[in-house]
Every structure is written in structure tokens, then in C-alpha cells.
């Protein structure tokens, strides 16, 4: 278990789709442990393997109820109701903006042993699932903003990074 360096925006690895995990072994468990430790140190509530440079479909979330790992997560259903929620990223610290997301979703995923799982979520957990699955698909969260909002946010981040 160790804290790994976080890939920072505008690193191109943040816009590349992650590969499915096919081997469920001690190396995968070690990666999940590193993700958890790195996320807590950031600090953050969600992180993906691409955030530390590993292009694999692994997500760790901790919304105050203990860290949970999702391997190969996919959205299988999304409610028509939408909500706005303020989002940010460990790869772009110090900036955030409101993003529209589905209010409720259902995901399928595998646990660290490769067992198929399903989970329904709403509110913040649903937002986090959608945000991190976007990241695994190569869509960095700011791509969901209008061009004008995205450009302003990038300028703000660049200014913070220089300070």
C-alpha cells in the first residue's frame, strides 16, 4: 500500500479509454489499495486507475462509509430524472463546476475476486459512479461543460497551478 503520484490535467492519459481487467490477483488488490491510499491523501472521494497512470477499469469510492472498489463498472440503467452536482477531480485540484447527471443509476461491476455484482445508487453516489465511469471511458469531467465554462475553468486551474 502506497500513495502514488496523480496524473495531472492536461495529461493525455486522462482522455484515453481504460482496458478491462481480466486478471483478478494480488497485483489488482495492491492497485486497489494504492488507489484508496492515494485518494485519501489527495484528498478525494473517488479515484480511478487512470488517475495514477494505470489504464485499467478500476474505481475506488469512499463517501464516508468505507472505501469500496469497483472493477469493470458499466452503467446498465439510468433514470430520466436529472440532478446538478458540483464536481471536480484529483487530477485538477482547486477547481470545480456544476455538472448535470442522472439522479439514479444501476451499475454492473466485478469485485476484487472477479465476482459479478450489481448496485443501484442515487444522489452523490450516483454522481460519483457516473463521473468515474466517464473517466474510465476517456471522458474527463470538464468535457461535460460548455466550451466557455470549460475554457474559464482551465484558465482558473492554470492560474492556481502557477501560484
What's the helix and strand layout?
Layout: H1 26-41, E1 46-48, E2 58-61, E3 68-78, E4 82-87, E5 97-102, E6 104-110, E7 116-122, H2 123-136, H3 147-162
Task: Give a short overview.
The chain has one domain (12-161): Peptide deformylase (Peptide Deformylase, Alpha-Beta Complex). The model has no long low-confidence stretch (mean pLDDT 97). The strands form 2 sheets. Strands 1-2-3-6-7 form a 5-stranded antiparallel sheet.
How does this model look, in words?
Belongs to the polypeptide deformylase family. This is Peptide deformylase-like. It is a single chain. The protein has 163 residues and is an alpha+beta fold. The strands form 2 sheets. The protein has a 5-stranded antiparallel sheet with strand order 1-2-3-6-7. A two-stranded antiparallel ribbon has the order 4-5. Strand 2 (58-61) and strand 3 form a beta hairpin. Helices cover 28% and strands 27% of the residues. It has one domain: Peptide Deformylase.
Amino acid at each position: 500500500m502506497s500513495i502514488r503520484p496523480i496524473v495531472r490535467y492536461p495529461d493525455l492519459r486522462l482522455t484515453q479509454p481504460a482496458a478491462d481487467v481480466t486478471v483478478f490477483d494480488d497485483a489488482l488488490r495492491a492497485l486497489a489499495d494504492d488507489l484508496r491510499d492515494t485518494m485519501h491523501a489527495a484528498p478525494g472521494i473517488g479515484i480511478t486507475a487512470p488517475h495514477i497512470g494505470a489504464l485499467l477499469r478500476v474505481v475506488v469510492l469512499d463517501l464516508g462509509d468505507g472505501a469500496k472498489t469497483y472493477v469493470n463498472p458499466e452503467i446498465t440503467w439510468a433514470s430520466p430524472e436529472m440532478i446538478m452536482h458540483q464536481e471536480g477531480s484529483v487530477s485538477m485540484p482547486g477547481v470545480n463546476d456544476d455538472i448535470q447527471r442522472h439522479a439514479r443509476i444501476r451499475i454492473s461491476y466485478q469485485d476484487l475476486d472477479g465476482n459479478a455484482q450489481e448496485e443501484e445508487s442515487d444522489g452523490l453516489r450516483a454522481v460519483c459512479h457516473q463521473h468515474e465511469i466517464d473517466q474510465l471511458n476517456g471522458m474527463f469531467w470538464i468535457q461535460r461543460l460548455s466550451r466557455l465554462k470549460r475554457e474559464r475553468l482551465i484558465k482558473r486551474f492554470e492560474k492556481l497551478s502557477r501560484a
